[in-house]
Design goal:
A: alpha/beta, two-stranded antiparallel sheet, 17 helices, 11 strands, B: mainly alpha, Double Stranded RNA Binding Domain, 4 strands, elongated, ribosomal protein (chain A), transit peptide (chain A), mitochondrion (chain A)
């Protein structure tokens, strides 16, 4: 076909505002040239047949006018308020389609301290699962929902961390530690393992599952009366936290009795009444912070059969910056001026001690974490210290740099740092064998497969291994 | 605007003594004639009454030009001329009469030739005023006659051919230069002498090879503070502070430029003075700026990642990898014999074979389901 002919063909066949449908209708005229600029033969055999005239489809020349704010009615019931979020945040811990794995044992109280268990996959006991669920330690992004029951890999870092906690417990001191690491290296998972260990060993666990909930201005706040400099409490959040603590640590709290009288509580709690009663006295958000203070005071009494405390928080960077809250004078509030955050940072910095031992753990998050230069600097200094660098050779603040925060650096002056990296190859193999035994990984687990996934996952970054092996639709 | 030839032509045309100005032309012009250099266009005067008085001098000129002897005779008959003129005219007449006949014919021939050749040159240019954009107006800047200039008369190559030839000529000219002239430049070559210890300032000048350019006055000086003699460490630090953003911390070099003055030498002098002043200030112990850190925010440090040496494949590394692979294979074999190998495919097929077959209960087809909608669903391609 010569060029002008071709052009003419196109012009003849293309109606104004031409759509694919109209082109096809016209193709009865010149069937062989349905695709004008194609080198491949047309596939549809019936294009040669004369088609029925059919009703003429009108080509819309005018774009549809969309009215702002009007949602197209798709004929279904729209979800109720909060339903979408609940669906997004739901935690599924079991899946009956997954195969039960033989030889899977439950974690016992001392199992996570034992170096022999490194590289084993173990299940969380049901009681602990309930407690963890109450404390909101499970996260929707973790892949619990494709396995029969919640199980986890015991990593060398897990055993290492829990042994440090155990050692601190013997010295009646608290382990103050920050869990850092790249994305999806298992920071929250390590925290979960520590909390599981704590529940199994009768610690009192106070867990803040998402630090950003405290600082992004999503929950109510009010100044704490008689505080100077003024601090702000978050009554609704604290009430929820007390309820979670009460529910998860019910047995322990029932055993302990109060030794102080707390005159400013809304409800009269006489001395030597159970701590559970004290926790139960938080009924209204207004009194939540006072009850929480009283509860914390009772829990941190030295001796008197008080258990160790694990105070943990996930998403450290969110509480190391100015919060979204404002004072009455519309000045931004520093996160450390929020009472609950202040309590945590004081525990982390060692200003508030936990006399019965325990741990203050803070996990970093990399997903949506804000950039906090002071936090990065402080952690790099801690890393350099742990690497044995001299005090004079630690990283310094750049001269003339802005955005640095003395309060943040003061908090992280003496904490320990745990840098999480990828798992080792034997650990990876064990994990992949668990996946294959659960029927979610359709391949023979030999050294070659393990090595392939391990390498693909940037030297065994667990989340990346999951992505490479599990979360792919290729079967 | 007007070329020399054009001016000459205009002048010649207006000179009364030059014969052969045709009466028809003069008739259309004003009797005073055209001005030699005029910016206003020539206008045709209104038709006047037949006036022969202005024709007279023309005939006289023709007569003079055609036969000098007759003219001189007539001139002598004139009573009004002075005796000196009369004497001169008489001498001229005598000289003319004495000329041989052949000479006279030669002069006659010359006259004819001149008239013939000079005629078109002296033809006045008439502009057609009613043409579009005066399209027929000739460009008087050209010496040549434009008529038929672009006509191709089959006696030449095309202009593209000429262009090609011109290209060849140019190339060959440069080739000649390369071969014959360039080697002579080697005579001017100087050996590179590295700067001596004292020469720590490096100046850069810009030349546009003799052409004027606003940037050719610019002078740039570069120096490294450690190269400057006699400066202590705090003084060098102060010097860097004084240089501010002109200090490059990566290369440890201060770079300054000046194009404030008209001449290169002035700019260079200024820079030299400035460096001297900076050194003097740096040596001044009154304030050593110890409390001010060195600011390097103006400079972006670019990290150039290099291939790590450890990653290079060496013989030992190859052996290591080989050993690891053999080890892995042995491990797998061991696991196979022990029955510890986990195979995801086998696990799934085993579980499926063990599972009870699912019996689907028959379900009434829903009345509300729309058959047309079901049909219109895209079928999975097989």
């Amino acid at each position: 076909m010569s060029a002008p002919n071709c052009l003419r063909g196109c012009l003849v066949q293309r109606p104004a505002g031409g759509a694919a449908a109209t082109l096809l209708r016209h193709s009865t005229v010149m069937p062989a040239t349905a695709a004008h600029f194609s080198t491949s033969t047309p596939l549809h055999g019936n294009m040669m047949k004369p088609q029925k005239p059919g009703p003429k489809s009108k080509v819309l020349l005018v774009a549809k006018q969309w009215k702002k704010g009007k949602v197209a009615d798709r004929g279904g019931k729209s979800p109720l308020p909060g339903e979408r979020k609940a669906f997004r945040k739901r935690i599924l811990l079991s899946n009956n389609n997954a195969l039960p794995v033989e030889g899977l044992t439950y974690i016992g109280p001392g199992d996570l301290l034992d170096h022999k268990n490194v590289g084993k996959v173990m299940s969380i006991p049901d009681a602990a699962v309930d407690q963890l669920r109450t404390a909101e330690v499970f996260k929707p992004t973790q892949t619990w929902s494709i396995f029969r029951k919640p199980s986890m890999l015991v990593r060398s870092e897990t055993v290492d961390l829990l042994n440090r906690m155990h050692t601190a417990l013997g010295k009646e001191k608290a382990l103050r530690l920050v869990i850092a690491g790249d994305r999806i290296t298992g920071k929250s998972m390590l925290l979960l393992q520590a909390i599981t260990h704590a529940y199994l060993n009768d610690y009192i666990v106070i867990h803040i599952p998402e630090a950003q909930e405290l600082s992004i201005g999503a929950t109510e706040y009010a100044p704490v009366p008689h505080s100077d400099p003024v601090q702000f409490m978050q009554p609704n959040y604290v009430l929820k936290l007390i309820q979670a603590i009460r529910k998860a640590n019910e047995k322990l709290l029932a055993k302990m009795t109060t030794i102080y009288s707390h005159p400013d509580l809304p409800q009269n709690i006489p001395v030597s009444s159970p701590l559970l009663a004290l926790a139960n006295s938080a009924k209204e958000p207004e009194s939540a912070w006072i009850v929480f203070r009283a509860l914390f005071q009772e829990l941190t009494v030295k001796g008197h059969g008080r258990p160790p405390i694990l105070f943990s928080l996930d998403g450290l960077a969110h509480i190391m910056k100015m919060s979204e809250y404002r004072t009455a004078a519309f000045e931004p509030i520093h996160s450390h001026d929020l009472a609950l955050v202040r309590l945590f940072t004081d525990c982390l910095s060692g200003a508030v001690s936990l006399p019965n031992g325990g741990a203050v753990l803070a996990a970093m998050t990399r997903g949506n974490a804000p950039r906090v230069p002071s936090l990065d600097l402080a952690l790099s200094r801690r890393a350099a210290e742990q690497a044995g660098r001299h005090k004079n050779q630690l990283p310094q603040r750049p001269a003339f740099a802005k955005d640095y925060d003395d309060r943040v650096e003061a908090v992280l002056q003496t904490v320990e740092l745990l840098q999480l990296q990828g798992v080792s190859k034997p650990e990876a193999r064990s994990l992949m064998e668990y996946w294959a035994a659960s029927g979610v990984l359709r391949s023979l687990i030999d050294e070659a497969t393990v090595s392939e996934k391990w390498t693909l996952a940037g030297n065994g970054i667990v989340g990346e291994m999951e992505r490479a092996a599990l979360l792919t639709s290729r079967f | 605007m007007a070329s020399a030839a054009n001016t000459l032509r205009l002048c010649l045309r207006n000179r009364a003594q030059i014969p052969c100005i045709r009466p028809s032309v003069l008739k259309s012009q004003s009797p005073l004639g055209r001005r030699a250099l005029s910016t206003s266009a020539l206008r045709l005067a209104r038709e006047e009454k037949e006036d022969t008085s202005h024709l007279e001098p023309v005939f006289e000129f023709n007569k003079t030009w055609n036969s000098p002897g007759e003219f001189l005779k007539e001139h002598l008959r004139d009573e009004t001329i002075s005796p000196l003129e009369r004497q001169q005219a008489a001498e001229m007449l005598q000289t003319w009469e004495q000329q041989p006949e052949s000479k006279k014919r030669e002069i006659e021939q010359l006259r004819k030739d001149i008239v013939e050749k000079a005629g078109p040159l002296r033809r006045p240019v008439l502009i057609k005023r009613d043409s579009f954009w005066n399209a027929n107006e000739k460009d008087t800047d050209y010496v040549t006659n434009e008529f038929g200039e672009d006509d191709f008369e089959e006696d030449d190559i095309l202009s593209m051919g000429h262009g090609k030839l011109e290209e060849h000529r140019e190339a060959r000219e440069y080739a000649r230069l390369t071969v014959w002239e360039m080697p002579l430049l080697a005579k001017f070559a100087k050996p590179f002498v590295p700067p001596a210890d004292g020469e720590c300032l490096r100046f850069r000048y810009t030349s546009y090879l003799g052409e004027f350019h606003p940037a050719d006055r610019k002078v740039v000086v570069e120096f490294s503070p450690p190269d400057l003699p006699g400066l202590t460490r705090p003084q060098r630090r102060k010097l860097k502070l004084l240089a501010g953003p002109r200090y490059n911390p990566e290369k440890d070099i201060i770079k300054m430029s000046c194009e404030r003055f008209e001449h290169q030498a002035q700019n260079k002098r200024y820079l030299g003075d400035l460096v001297a002043k900076m050194i003097e200030t740096a040596k001044d112990p009154t304030d050593m700026f110890e409390d001010i850190p060195l600011d390097t925010r103006h400079h972006t440090f670019k990290a150039k990642p290099k291939f790590p040496k450890e990653w290079l494949m060496s013989e030992a590394r190859q052996q290591e990898i080989k050993a690891a692979r053999t080890n892995a294979m042995m491990l797998d074999e061991q696991r196979k014999t022990d029955g510890e190998m986990v195979d995801g495919v086998k696990v799934i097929t085993g579980a499926l074979s063990r599972a009870e077959p699912v019996v689907h209960e028959p379900v009434m087809a829903s009345r509300r389901s729309n058959p047309s909608r079901q049909q219109s669903r895209p079928q999975m391609r097989r």
